[in-house]
Amino acid sequence: MNYKMLRYITGQLLIVECLLMFLSLIVSLVYGEFANLEAFIIPMAAMLIIGLLFSLKKPENKTLKVKDGFVIVGLSWIVLSFFGCLPFVISGLIPNFIDAFFETVSGFTTTGSSVLSASDFDKLWAPASAELGMRGVFFWRSFTNWIGGMGVLVFVLAIMPQQDMKSSRLVHVMRAEMPGPKVDKIVATVRKTAAIMYAIYVVMTAAQVVLLLFGGMDLYESLCTSFSTAGTGGFAVWSDSMVSFGGTVAHPNFCIWVIGIFMFLFSINFNLYFLVLTGKIAAALFSEELRWFVGIVLASTAIVTANLYSVYGNISDSVRQAFFQVSTVISTTGFATDDFNLWPNISKTLLLILMFIGACAGSTGGGIKVSRLIIAVKGTWAEIRRMVRPREIKKVFFEKKAVEGDTVKGTFAYIVAYCFIFFASFLFISLIDGQNIETSFSSVAACINNIGPGLGEVGPASNYAFYSPISKIVLSLDMLLGRLEIFPLIFLFSPSVWREK
Questions:
Q1: Which residue stretches of 389-453 are H helix?
Q2: Residues 85 and 97: beta-carbon distance below 8 Å
Q3: What is the DSSP-derived secondary structure letter of residue 57?
Q4: Which one-letter DSSP state was computed for residue 180?
Q5: d(CA 390, CA 385)
Q6: b or e along 383-401 (b: 16 or more beta carbons within 10 Å of the residue's beta carbon)?
Q7: Could you tell me the pTM of the whole model?
Q8: Which is nearest to 360 in space by CA: 375, 368, 370, 351?
C-alpha cells in the first residue's frame, strides 16, 4: 500500500471539496443568509488546513497498483461525505450527525434517499430576514448530486498537473470510481479523458439549465434541478419532488419532458457522446448496450402507459407519467411526478425490476448496468452450450468484440457479491426495524442501486427518517457499495490490503 500517495490524493480531494463548497457560500451571501455562513466557513477552513498539510509534500514514489486505486477511491468517498455533511449539522437543517451523514452519502452517491420532511423544505423558502432561509444549504445538497455524478476523483484527475501522475497510474483510480464492467481511456491520457468527460458533463448540464429557464423555473430552481438530473441523484428543491413544482413553474409539463429526456441522456455511456463529437456517429448509434437500453426504456414506457390509461384517462398524461417514471427509475435518479406507490401492481413491479437493471456503464446512473447484464446473459448461455457440447469453444461477444475471460468472471463475481450484500442488508434492517417486506426490500434496492425512493413506507411521498441509526449506517454503506460497485469498499475494509507493502 502506497500510504504517501493515499495521503497526497486525499489532501488534493479535500482542497477540491473546499473550493466546490465555496459556491454554496456564495449562494448564501447572494440571498443574504448571513446566519448560515458559518455552516460553510467552518468545514471549508478544516478541509483547507488538512488538505494543505496532506498535500504540501509530493511523494517521491507515485506508483499506484490496482489495490491502491480501490482503497484511495473507497476512503476518499467516506472522507468526502464526512466533511460534506457538516453544513447540514452546523446550519441545524439536519442536527443529528448520522442523519446528516446519510443525507450526504445519498447526495454524493447520487441516490436521492432523504431524511427531510415537508416542514424542512419550508426553511428553504423562508425569507432570509427571518434567519431561517437555507438556499445555500439546499444548493449544497443538490450540488452533491452533481459532484458525485461523474465522480469527484475524476474531477481531481482532470485538473491535476500532468507532472504529478502518469496515466498508467491514474487509470487504476479512474477504473475504481467509474461505473461499469471496464473503463478505458478514450484518448491518450487519463487526464485528458477525465477533462473531456467533465466538459461533456458541464455542457449537458448547462443545456438543461437553459431549457428549464424557458420552462418557467427561476435560476436557482433550474440550477438545483439540473445538478440533480445530471448526477441522476434526484434531490429536488420541493418537498413533493416534481409533483407540483411548488406551484411556481409556468410550464410544468414542458419541464417534466425536459427533465425526463435529460435523465435518459445522462444514463447513456459518455464514451458514445465522445464518438459523436469526433464524427463517429454510426459507431455510437449502433452500440449494443445503447440499443438494449433504448429498447428497455421504450418497451417499459409502452407497458406502463397502457397500465396507467385507466388511472389518468387520457393518452398524453399516461405517456408523460410513464416515460418520466421509467426514465427516473432506470437512470436511478429518483425524481417523482406522482406517487407511483399508488399505481397498479404491474407498473410497480416493472419499476422495481428497472431499479436493478439500471443505466449504461460509463454514465452517471446506478444499478447493475445494462452492459453487465448483457455479458452475464451471454456468459450463461455460453456455459450452457459448453455443457451440451464440451469440445465447442464458445466465446462471449459484446459490442462486436470478444469479451476477455477475466471480464466475464468479474461480471459474475460482481453479481454474486451484489446478491450477497443485498440480502444480508435486507435481512439486517428487517430484524432491526421490523418494517414490512415491501418497505425493507425496496429500501435496500433503492439504496444499493442509488435510486432513492422505493415502495411502501419509503415511497416518493415518504422519507427514510423513521429508520434507526444502525439501519441508516447500513443503508449508507449500501449506497457507497452501489455507487463504487462493491470492490473498492471491500478492499478498504480488508485488513490484508493494509498490511501489504
A1: 405-433, 437-448
A2: yes
A3: S
A4: S
A5: 8
A6: eeeeeeeeeeeeebebeee
A7: 0.91
A8: 370
